[in-house]
Amino acid sequence: MTGLAARGVTLSLGGRRVLHEASVGVAPGEIVGVIGPNGAGKSTLLRALAGIQRPDAGVVMLDGRELAGMAPGDRARRLSFLPQEEMPPPPMRVEDLVAFGRLPHRAARDEARDRAAVARALGETGLLDLRGRPGSQLSGGERARLRLARALAVEAPYLLADEPVAALDPAHALAVMASFGRLAEGGRGVAVVLHDLTLAGRFCHRLVLMRDGRVAAHGRPAEILTDAAMRAVYGVTVRRVGDAVVPWSLTDGRSEEKQVIS
Ligand SMILES: Nc1ncnc2c1ncn2[C@@H]1O[C@H](COP(=O)(O)OP(=O)(O)OP(=O)(O)O)[C@@H](O)[C@H]1O
């Protein structure tokens, strides 16, 4: 069976259970958005799907095979993972840092293909003009695009991206989501953690709503981004501008917290 799927994944970190029987799938050709409040388990779910964190119970299946049984090199060519945070980049040229994304393919010794993949990734992330700059000199948003470019350069069938647009300005955020759309059109599967509900609703084919380490709901964006779900899971009311869902105010239950913050 093609696709990347977590089935009943339960996982504890530091003695705390942070994922409870989570079942989530990404099929070739679709973008699955993972949404939910801070600490809900989104990153942990993505790391489990990437094979970085091994479940205590349940399995992750990749195109019909158990991920845990795959050779690391094989897995690295099939799955590309973009972490939420990383150390600042070293003072190497941007294009050389992006080329690290080709490491899983080094045995193929196909330099022309590697160069083309790096050029495509730089183009998709708007980094062509910055390709000769040291990575250590980039701004926060430029570094985020560099990390994404390295993940794109792998050209893996599945991309798992943890908050790839959190640091980006609106134009770059839209460009990144559009590039995910092109990946999906080309038959790749994309799972992306997002806090921006408007982007999630607009670009994702399906949404997985996490809450307290569980999958609270999954389905088409219109089924998930309901007033009731946003109120129950985030404690916010929303307004709608066309198809866009805009978090508007804290619900009554959160007003105390709001006062503490302000
Ligand atoms: N190494 C760890 N040890 C113990 N608890 C951890 C560890 N890493 C994460 N957690 C906890 O696991 C829970 C889920 O964390 P996770 O990073 O998956 O959440 P998230 O939904 O991605 O949050 P955010 O939106 O803030 O990035 C949180 O309560 C977090 O405090």
Question: What distinguishing features does this structure have?
Answer:
Rossmann fold, alpha/beta, 262 residues, single chain, binds adenosine-5'-triphosphate, six-stranded mixed β-sheet
Summarize the structure.
The protein contains 10 helices and 12 strands. With 262 residues, it is an alpha/beta fold. It has a 6-stranded mixed β-sheet with strand order 6-7-8-3-9-10, sandwiched between helices.
Could you characterize what this model shows?
Residues 4-237 form the ABC transporter domain. It is a single chain. The chain is an alpha/beta fold. The protein folds into 2 domains: 4-225, P-loop containing nucleotide triphosphate hydrolases (Rossmann fold), CATH 3.40.50; 226-262, no CATH class. 35% of the residues lie in helices and 28% in strands. It has helices at residues 42-49, 72-78, 94-99, 111-124, 140-153, 170-185, 197-203, 221-224, 227-234, 255-261; strands at residues 4-13, 16-26, 31-35, 57-62, 65-66, 79-82, 158-162, 189-193, 206-211, 214-219, 236-241, 244-250. Strands 6-7-8-3-9-10 form a 6-stranded mixed β-sheet, with helices on both faces. The protein has a 4-stranded antiparallel β-sheet with strand order 2-1-4-5, covered by helices on one side. The chain is globular, with a radius of gyration of 19 Å. Residues 258-262 have low confidence and may be disordered. The structure holds adenosine-5'-triphosphate. Adenosine-5'-triphosphate binds at residues 13-14, 16, 18, 36, 38-44.
